[in-house]
UniProtKB/TrEMBL annotation:
Every CCHC-type domain range: 83-98
Organism expressing this protein natively: Oryza sativa (Rice)
Keywords for this protein: Metal-binding, Zinc, Zinc-finger
Protein name: OSIGBa0093K19.3 protein
Cited SMART domains: ZnF_C2HC
Length: 575
């Protein structure tokens, strides 16, 4: 028998295999016997004892009390780091890229009952794809796109624990534990998610799904569910036929693994409840010039200003070709027009996230002589204060938002930019103009004024709809989309997210539990290179200060760096 440390908080275990951290209530085979241990803080408020043990290489196995620990195997001289969330080595839970796992706690009511038995043949999409007797597809599960497996070899129907946790699905205790045989081992399931709504080709089905650890299958529909809906799997033609409670017959054809992956990333607006009623709000491209609105973009100049003209920057041949392409596209849409203005600003290229080039105008000279618009942008923390109690979220990102606001006719010549192919002036608002955010914020506040701080928050062209319940959210989402339709404002579907229990918004992660820092942005702070100049220090403090509300005594911590911004202070970076 391998003996672990026996002082308080530790336990002795039978022969073990390599294991990883898991939530309480999940049985991992390989620990043949675990003795009860003293109580320690539960998941969600992980105590320093567990955290320290994790970093020293200790791992977790299931016991009758919340936790037991056994020493993990490690190579000579190594310092293993294991994620408390996903169990993978190499990172901590606060930097885990995978969704948070659903909280599963041992139920007192069923902990002593004998376990029933169940079987599932596939827990990963890759292995299921090659099996002849199962069908894979992508469908809406509680309004969220999910990978669904129809498996006549599974005795019960299951829901991925990570999917349930990530989307805040309701769970309840099973009357009796269920010992599930999987291809690799066995697992004990203690909870289920009742009355889960699965929409298949527009037809709703309900399912009671047992929580089970799964790699990339969100839902497994087994014989219990297939029998209830007269499911017939046609192995030769790779399809399944189902009958709904009201007699409607639905046939589903299997997707290839490549199609399945792309399907998950290309769910269409037709498949999202409420959204499908507003197809005109999600066009593939803007339909043309925006309508004339009460608000138009103005450029008010400092008195005595004369026109400023700059020569175009030198560009490589491939850049000139891209300029020609984008200028032709903007001319065709009517967003620019040829100009003979005495004004002129050079153009530059900025790389977008998808590595394509966005043509931008260098308006710095014009901005220097423009009177600044004092319209206030909302404080981020004030926006988040409105979200208390919300559990369902949808995020809408406008398509080329600035191009949906016209420039006042007499100010159009001031926007002229210079290119190898001549002078052009903008008819719609352009990136880089100093007052553009203020004018667009003014427009959006007027559009959503009656809903602000009730169920809508807006920051420039980002719109967040929040609700306490799904029933409320259905009404709120419809009202918000109706406003966009009324004012002829258009959204980019690929950048929108709907019916979420957790959403990223303005560099934060928002859920029913509150507001947290986006882990990807934390990584940007931790990976920041050592600043070497005053401007680099100022940039770093600006980034870190964005999250000061989450850092206790931020001012004291940052004080040594803040001092370096003062004049005549010797710059010295110590270890």
């Amino acid at each position: 028998m391998d003996i672990s440390r026996t002082n308080e908080g530790y336990t002795s275990c039978g022969p073990v295999v390599e294991m990883s951290w898991h939530r309480a209530g999940v049985l991992l085979l390989g620990a043949q016997s675990c003795l009860p241990v003293p109580e320690v803080p539960a998941v969600g408020g992980v105590g320093s004892v567990l955290l320290s043990m994790a970093r020293m290489g200790w791992k977790l196995c299931h016991v009758s009390r919340p936790y037991a620990v056994v020493p993990a195997k490690r190579e000579q001289g190594s310092k293993p780091v294991v994620c408390f969330n996903c169990g993978d080595p190499g990172h901590y839970a606060d930097k885990c890229p995978k969704p948070r796992r659903v909280k599963v706690v041992p139920a007192q009511s069923n902990s002593t009952a004998p376990a029933s038995k169940a079987r599932v043949n596939h827990v990963a999409a890759a292995e299921a794809q090659d099996a002849p007797d199962v069908i894979l597809g992508t469908f809406l599960v509680n309004s969220v796109p999910a990978t669904v497996l129809f498996d006549s070899g599974a005795t019960h129907s299951f829901l991925s624990m990570s999917f349930a946790g990530n989307h805040g699905m309701e769970v309840e205790d099973l009357r009796r534990p269920l010992m599930v045989s999987t291809p690799s081992n066995q697992a004990l399931s203690l909870q289920r998610s009742p009355s889960v709504r699965i929409e298949i080709k527009g037809v709703p089905f309900l399912a009671n799904l047992i929580l089970l650890e799964s790699k990339d299958l969100d839902v497994i529909l087994g014989m219990d569910w297939l029998a209830r809906h007269k499911g017939v799997i046609d192995c030769a033609n790779r399809k399944v036929t189902l009958t709904s409670n009201d007699g409607r017959v639905v046939t589903v054809h299997a997707l290839s693994s490549e199609s399945l992956r792309s399907r998950l990333n290309q769910i269409t607006w037709e498949e999202i409840p409420i959204v499908r009623e507003y197809s005109d709000v999600f066009p593939d491209d803007l339909p043309g010039m925006p309508p004339k609105r009460d608000i138009e973009f103005r450029i008010d100049l400092v008195p005595g200003t004369t026109p400023i003209h700059k020569r175009p920057y030198r560009m490589a041949a491939n850049e000139l070709a891209e300029v020609k392409r984008q200028v032709d596209d903007l001319l065709q849409k009517g967003y620019i027009r040829p100009s003979s203005s005495p004004w002129g600003a050079p153009i530059i290229f900025v790389e977008k996230k998808d590595h394509t080039q966005r043509m931008c105008v260098d308006y710095r000279a014009l901005n220097d002589v423009t009177i600044k618009n004092k319209y206030p942008l909302p404080r981020i923390d004030d926006l988040f204060d409105q979200l208390k109690g919300a559990t369902v979220f949808s995020k809408i990102d406008l398509r080329s938002g600035y191009h949906q606001l016209r420039i006042k006719e007499e100010d159009i010549p001031k926007t002229t930019f210079t290119t190898r192919y001549g002078l052009f002036e903008c008819t719609v608002m352009s990136f880089g103009l100093t007052n553009a955010p203020a004018f667009f914020m003014n427009l959006m506040n007027k559009v959503f004024m009656e809903y602000l701080d009730k169920f809508v928050v807006v920051f420039i062209d980002d719109i967040l709809i929040y609700s306490r319940t799904k029933e409320e959210h259905e009404e709120h989402l419809r009202l918000a989309l109706e406003k966009l339709r009324e004012h002829q404002l258009y959204a980019k579907f690929s950048k929108c997210e709907f019916w979420l229990s957790e959403v990223k918004f303005l560099g934060h992660v928002i859920s029913a539990g509150g507001v947290a820092v986006d882990p990807s942005n934390v990584e940007s702070v931790t990976n920041w290179k050592q600043p070497k100049t005053v401007s680099e220090i100022r940039s770093f403090l600006g980034l870190a200060g964005y999250y000061r509300r989450f850092i206790e005594n931020f001012s004291k911590i940052a004080k040594p760096m803040t001092r370096l911004l003062q004049k005549d202070v010797k710059y010295k970076w110590s270890e």
